[in-house]
Write a structure and sequence with these properties.
The protein has 2 domains: about 55 residues, no CATH class; about 220 residues, MetI-like (MetI-like fold, Orthogonal Bundle). Helices cover about 70% and strands about 0% of the residues. The protein contains 15 helices and no strands. α4 crosses α15. The longest helix is centred in the middle third of the chain and has 31 residues. It is globular.
Length: about 300
């Protein structure tokens, strides 16, 4: 009886696959290759839209580096006249930034790990295992997407209050253990492309479902798992309603609440340069995360459309 071993795709093969994907995008439906000037208008439109979406980010960074006097000027300056990098240090000390950052990091890392593991296991059961009523149960799971958040808000808060978990991080972390309908759907669509012959051959060789899951399916599912991880990280990091409901104590609050507290405390005289500096520090980890894993993210999103 043979043993199922982990499938490691060689680096050269991965590079060849990426080149093949790019080549596919550069061809028309009839198989002929597109010329660069045939997509010139599309490229111009995409560049213009990219600049439009980047404009708020640029304005945030530029405003965070201006002085109070320069911010009050009209018309506003496009570039800072004097680079006030001290605004970032002031923003860090104007509120317990490091404590809020640590709480947000704990919640985000925990949610990402639990979301990837739980949704991967559930999606494997829906995509790679045949069992009676599988599709009907899957449709029921998808139907939970139509439940409005206010419908579940009061019952969930009552449950966590009875468990004594209010003012702790558990209400924001534990739900990730039970999966998400959107992430399950995303992973299931990806796993449906794995050849069934390979899975059946592993079962004939005596491999258990856990062995198949972690040694055969997991190595080929990394792009989709990275996509789920990025979605989960962005959702957990930017979550405002959850911390607002469950975290009333300052020692467990997150950055999303901290920014609102900073703005409300200084409501009469808001230092917008400090507010922009703190806001940029909040989104900086997400920008780094996306640029590090953008290749996996884009591949995990688009691969379902290719055969």
């Amino acid at each position: 009886m043979s043993t199922v071993t982990r499938v490691d795709i060689p680096v050269d093969e991965r590079r060849a696959q990426r080149r093949a994907d790019k080549e596919m995008l550069n061809r028309r439906a009839d198989g002929t290759r597109r010329s660069w000037h045939s997509t010139l208008a599309a490229r111009i439109v995409m560049i213009a839209l990219s600049l439009l979406f980047l404009l708020p980010l640029y304005w945030m960074i530029a405003s965070s580096l201006k002085s109070d006097v320069e911010l009050a000027q009209f018309p506003p300056t496009l570039f800072p006249q004097s680079w006030e990098f001290g605004n970032y240090l002031e923003a860090l000390t104007a509120m317990p930034f490091l404590r809020f950052f640590a709480n947000s990091a704990i919640i985000t890392i925990s949610v990402v790990v639990l979301s990837v593991v739980s949704n991967f296991i559930v999606a494997y059961g829906f995509a790679c295992i045949d069992w009676p009523g599988r599709d009907k149960v899957f449709y029921l799971v998808i139907a939970t997407l139509f439940l409005p958040f206010p419908v579940t808000l009061i019952p969930m808060f009552d449950m966590w209050a009875r468990l004594g978990a209010v003012n702790t991080l558990f209400p924001l972390i534990i739900p990730a253990m039970f999966g998400s309908a959107f992430y399950v759907f995303l992973l299931r669509q990806f796993l449906k492309q794995i050849p069934r012959d390979m899975l059946d051959a592993a079962r004939v060789d005596g491999a258990s479902e856990w062995t198949i899951l972690w040694r055969l399916v997991y190595p080929t599912s990394k792009p989709a798992l990275v996509t789920v991880a990025i979605f989960a990280a962005v959702a957990a990091w930017n979550d405002f309603m959850g911390p607002l409901i469950y975290l009333q104590d300052e020692r467990v609050q997150t950055l999303s609440i901290g920014l609102q507290v900073f703005r409300s405390v200084n409501a009469q005289d808001v230092s917008f340069n400090l507010l922009m500096a703190a806001s940029f520090l909040v989104i900086l980890p997400l920008l780094i995360l996306f640029f590090l894993f953008q290749r996996y993210f884009i591949r995990g999103i688009t691969i379902g459309g290719f055969k």
